[in-house]
Write a structure and sequence with these properties.
By secondary structure, this protein is α+β, with helices and mostly antiparallel strands. It has one domain: GMP Synthetase, Chain A, domain 3. Helices cover 39% and strands 25% of the residues. The protein is built from two helices and three strands. The model has no long low-confidence stretch (mean pLDDT 87).
């Protein structure tokens, strides 16, 4: 199983918790030990997004894949991911 597949599997396990609050996320890419996601729905504008991102999503991924250094939320208007 590739690292991207493992990340997707972890995110799929977290989705129901986000959906319970009206949110969701989208896996964008994994590059240079950084996971890029897009928070959607209620999560996109939530005041707790930093907590959810770092203490929830990032911690869950790093527990399974320690080489991941960070998780970055790509905003809804960041369409040109090649510049990242």
């Amino acid at each position: 199983m590739s690292t991207e597949d493992k990340i997707q599997e972890i995110l799929d396990k977290l989705r129901p918790f986000l959906a319970g609050d009206g949110g969701d996320l989208e896996f964008i890419k994994y590059e240079n030990n950084v996971v890029y996601i897009r928070m959607m729905g209620a999560c996109a504008n939530c005041g707790m997004i930093d907590f959810t991102l770092k203490d929830g999503i990032e911690a869950a991924i790093q527990e399974e894949i320690p080489e991941v250094t960070t998780v970055v939320n790509v905003g809804p208007y960041d369409l040109d991911l090649d510049d990242m």
